[in-house]
Structure formats: structure tokens, C-alpha cells
Amino acid sequence: MDLSNSCDINFWLKHGGSNTQTCEASDLAGENVLLEYSTDGASWTLIDTYSFAGPFGSWGQECATIPPGAKTPTTRFRFRQPDNSGVGFDNWALDKVETDVLCTQAEISYTWSGGPVANPFSATTTATPTTTTTYTVTAIHGNQTMTASVTVTVSPPPTGGTTTGNSTACAGSCTHTISLAGHNGTVSFWQEDPGCSGNWQTIQNQNNSITPCVNTTTCYRAAVVTAGCPPAFSTSSTLTVESIGTLSSNQNICVGGNVQTLNLTGTSCNVQGWEKSVTNNCRTLPNQATWTPVAAGMSHTPVGLTDTTCFRAIVSCNGCPAARTNIVTIDVDEPPTFDPITSDYTAVCAGDPGPIIELNRYVRTLVRWEESIGCTGNNWQPLQPPYDNEMPTPSHGTPGVNCYRAIVRNGLCPEQPTPPHEQAAVDVITRDAVNLY
């Protein structure tokens, strides 16, 4: 028989009959029935022994697990009785020999013991022990009984304990130690929360203390675990870094304009002084700029600025080294400058298009062009846009001299007109005039 993938052999066995005088059953040692297997037909191995137990003449179902050595393509079974008391004695009968009839879990009974379980008669179950418990399962398969045990170790839940080390620290310091005590379990990791706002970030550290480098006020706590349990967090400790405050604010003025007072807010630190720099890169590369002391006090009002200037304050907190605040910049705009306005010609016949006037060079923004009829100097009117440094003048039918000027602005500086000596004048004449141009 090919029993490579078989599990069990099942059969029905009967010892003797109901008439003990004519069909006596086996009742002495050596008169048992043996089940054996062979893979070569020569050597035989015992699987199980069956002795009489029960009423005469009763059939009983027997089941045996096929041992690993019998799981081959060429396996033979045999039933034999090594000894008997002679003819008419020690009778037995065999019927319905099959393999794998009971090879399903449904035909195996299970019983769990050792403690409460969710399914005490199932092959698999769950349990929720509160203490370390050993569970034993008993499996009965036919006449085969097997047991197995598993121990579930229950660890006590962790307690996070208490951290110590609340302190005031200098920005950039790495000297303050926070320690954990009163905990049950081992430290799995630490966490930090810059700003103490609830945004915890993990630090890979499994020691009972931590010495962090701190730049801003930060809270710290430890996560403690025991085997199989979720972490418990300790109390938190805070390293308070005194804020050096915020300097406000950037401004833009024209040369000689007023600067709003610079104020340092959000700090209780002492202001040791103020510094300024007119280096071009003072706002982007402050460490490469040249700084000059200018004043003391919690605020500063710069005056007389002629160039773009950076400012910062020097503060000291709780014995920490002096620190520089953020930088504010006062951008200083210069008034616009001009070259004289030129024209391709200065006389035009009445009714003809006016000449093109040109502002050769100016600084910053051309706002508009204006015209004064008769060059009175007090009746300037804007020309029609668009405006460019080259501007066509309008046609006029009335003879006379008309003046033109440009209005230019730079940053926050006031609008500036072309100075009178640099304005353009156009003479509108009649066609029969004798004036020479």
C-alpha cells in the first residue's frame, strides 16, 4: 500500500462470542492481537497491541496512527496473535480495515486545562491570564491520547516613573542631565518636545538618564516597557531656555527720513547694547559684516541714516554668554537724479505734431510727464500715458512757448520734478513767422 500521505489505520475488532463455551475470547498473556507493519515484507515493526476488554461478542472500532516509518509507497500491515490456548479458544475477528478514515480534526477531541480559555474543546483557543500560567491540551484520536503544554509568561505592566532635572539652560548648552527614577521596567526610548506643545519626537536612548543639547525650551520624557506590554511614559521634565526676544521691525525710508523705534519684545533678558552695520551683506551674512556699537537700552531710535543699515541687539540671560538677536534692516532710498531733457527740435508749426522729448538718464521710476502751456510754471498738467523716457508731445494750434518736465520717484522718497533748468521748451509758431530755430 502507498501510505506516503496517510495518517491513520482504522478497523473493527471483535474478541470471542456471546457463548463462552463455543467461542471463547483471549484471556491470557500472549493471547493479545498485534498490529504490525513492514516495508520490505521481511522485517516487521509493532504499531499497537489489542487485548480483550468488554462484553463477549462485541465489535469495537480501533484506530492507530501510522508511524513515520510506515509512510512509504510499499507498506504492508498484518494482524497476528502470538499465542492461543488451542482449537476453539482465544477467538477474534477483524472487519473493515481502512486508512485515513479518522484523519480529520473533527474526529479528534481536544480538552484544555490549566486555566480559563475561550474555547476549551477546540484545537486552538485564546486565553487572557493575569499571572504566568501553563496550559495543557489533551488530544484523543481513537485509542491514541497525546498531551502538549505551553506556558504563557505574564509580565507586570510597566510604570513610567518620574523624571528629575527641571532647569533653566543657556541656548546651545549640553550640560543639563535629566534622570528617571521610580519606574518598573526598562527604558525603551526617550522623547523630546521642542516648545512643550505636545509634538513628541523619539530619541534613541535606552539609558536611565539623558543629557541633551538644547536651543529652545524643551520637554523630555522616557518610555518604559516590560515584556509583551505597551510602553508607559514617565512624567516630563523641562529645560527652559530664556528667549532672547524678537527685534522688530524692517523699515524703508528716504534719506533723512524718520525711523520708527526698534523694540526688543518677548524676553526678560538684559540688553547690553545695540550694533549697526552698513556692510552690503549684513542681513544675509551677518558674521562677515562689520558691526559698530551704537547705543544701550531696551529700544533704539536711529537718526540721520543715509545708507541702508542693519541693526541688532546684544542680550544676556541668567548668566549665559551674550547673544545677538535677529537682524532688522532699514532700507534707505536716495532721491532721484536727472540729466537735462532733450528734444529733436525746439520749434514746431502750429497744428503740427509736437516733437519727441527724451529724458536721457534718471534714477528709479518715471511716474509721468507734465506740460505747462505758456511756461508759466504753475499750471502743470499730465500728458496722456503711456509714459516712457521718450515721449511725443501733443499738437497745438495756438502759437506760444510750452514747457515739459518729467516726474520721477525713488522708493519711498517724494516725487521729484525735472529741475527748471533741465526742462524742455517747445515754441509753437505760425508758418509765416520769421523766427529762426
Description:
With 437 residues, this protein is mainly β. It folds into 5 domains: 8-99, Galactose-binding domain-like (Jelly Rolls), CATH 2.60.120; 105-152, no CATH class; 162-241, Immunoglobulin-like, CATH 2.60.40; 246-333, Immunoglobulins (Immunoglobulin-like); 341-429, Immunoglobulin-like. Helices cover 0% and strands 42% of the residues. The chain has no helices and 36 strands. It has strands at residues 8-15, 33-38, 45-50, 59-65, 76-80, 92-99, 109-113, 133-141, 144-152, 162-164, 167-169, 178-181, 186-194, 201-203, 209-210, 218-225, 232-233, 237-241, 246-248, 251-254, 262-265, 270-277, 292-295, 299-300, 309-316, 323-324, 328-333, 341-343, 347-349, 356-359, 365-373, 381-382, 390-392, 400-409, 416-417, 424-429. The strands form 9 sheets. Strands 11, 13, 14, 16, 17 and 18 form a 6-stranded mixed sheet that branches. Strands 20, 22, 23, 25, 26 and 27 form a 6-stranded mixed sheet that branches. A hairpin with a 6-residue loop joins β2 (33-38) and β3. The N and C termini lie far apart (133 Å).
Short description:
This protein has 437 residues and is mainly β.
Secondary structure topology:
Layout: E1 8-15, E2 33-38, E3 45-50, E4 59-65, E5 76-80, E6 92-99, E7 109-113, E8 133-141, E9 144-152, E10 162-164, E11 167-169, E12 178-181, E13 186-194, E14 201-203, E15 209-210, E16 218-225, E17 232-233, E18 237-241, E19 246-248, E20 251-254, E21 262-265, E22 270-277, E23 292-295, E24 299-300, E25 309-316, E26 323-324, E27 328-333, E28 341-343, E29 347-349, E30 356-359, E31 365-373, E32 381-382, E33 390-392, E34 400-409, E35 416-417, E36 424-429
